[in-house]
Amino acid sequence: MTEPMKHSPDPPVRSGIGGTLGLLAAILVIAGTLVWVLLNVSAVVSAPAGERAPEAPPAVAPEPPIADADAAEEAVHDATTSSPASSSPVPDPAWVARVAAATGIPERAMTAYASAALAISTMQPGCGLGWNTIAAIGSVESDHGRHGGAVLGTDGFPEPAIRGAALDGNGVQAIPDTDGGRWDADTVWDRAVGPMQFIPSTWLRWGSDGNGDGDSNPNQIDDAALAAGRYLCASGAVAVAEAWRAAVFSYNNLDSYVDDVARRANDYATRAG
Known about the structure:
mainly alpha; two-stranded antiparallel sheet; 4 strands; 4% strand; globular
């Protein structure tokens, strides 16, 4: 297992939803499978154990078109001048509908992932993070806000709220409560929350306002997707395999998790065309 990225003293973003979703899916990935991930400007390889993933040249895939370029420019301007954690451009609805149908990602979730990628491409143009990586993490973490029968509303909130197991040291990292139960309704231990499964202590640093409503909430998918993008891009470019893997590994410290995200991201990029 490689070391996490050194950009942040934070623990991994999440420790799983009761250990039954992302982790189980990740364990099923066969070690040694070669996986190329088509990112907006990057390619990623999952190499056999003991081998370093080769640094591949970028594989270019079109980024989502913007619905209103003028509004998007204003939103990103506000985000970069007042707070780097607020506002995301709105992707073209026709593009969202087409890609959602092709990938099986709910349109509401697809909008959030595409918006976050567009915002990151302007705020941190050197990062090279594709929407499909954010979507793949959303898939592993919460089935795009649908874990446990939750329904992702038009407002971007899953109902009921998605919360992971108590991080009480019982098979998971022990993280005593840091938010007074504000986000996870637990005043004893922290729990991963929301569609992207942020731990409250990590959200304190990376919380974002992706929908521009003046509030940053890890339970809201626009906010969570933008925060995930910012977190992944914190160390800079992810346009080569090693950097991409390190960024995703920092989200959850399992090589099998990185492989699973890679497989899903590759599948989404292929289906999107």
